[in-house]
Amino acid sequence: MLLTGKFRRSLDDKLRFAIPRPLREAMGAADSSVLYLAPGTDGSLELYSEAAFANVTGQLACGSRTNRDIRAFHRLFYGQVQMVELDKQGRVRLPADLAQLASIGKDIVLLGVGDHVEIWDVQRWEAYLGGTQPYYDELAERAFPDASRVSDLPRSALTEAKAESPQAESRPNLPR
Prior knowledge:
Layout: E1 6-10, E2 16-18, H1 21-27, E3 34-39, E4 45-49, H2 50-61, H3 68-78, E5 82-85, E6 91-93, H4 96-101, E7 107-113, E8 116-121, H5 122-132, H6 136-143, H7 155-164
Antiparallel strand pairs: 1-7, 2-6, 3-4, 3-5, 4-8, 7-8
């Protein structure tokens, strides 16, 4: 099952937070499940089930160990990944070093992002959202570059939408 949705939470004094039931169920996480907490991108952390983390490590294993960038990423990623346990109340303790790495304060946002949950400091998430939401359409075009993948729209609707769309030159440049 896909992990989706946005949930606001607060950390307690022991840096614990509750994972919402819909996310726990989608992750297949039961009481005392082992999860993997990893550094993420854009200042977030990533929380994986065992199965999802196995998929990530399988993808990373395909990279050449002789490539300097891949070696550096493996060290940064695997060296900071921590196993965390889901308690009987559905909570996870955020290790202090990972909280510091992501500049996480008391209030956080949990995002279901397909195969994992992203954990963001609420202020950092709001700044990220404010900077990227205005470019949703352009980002969608990059995420789905092949119009044939949009099977539920008839070809004429796609043609009309492109004809009504502003020219690419008038769109703001986005970082790649």
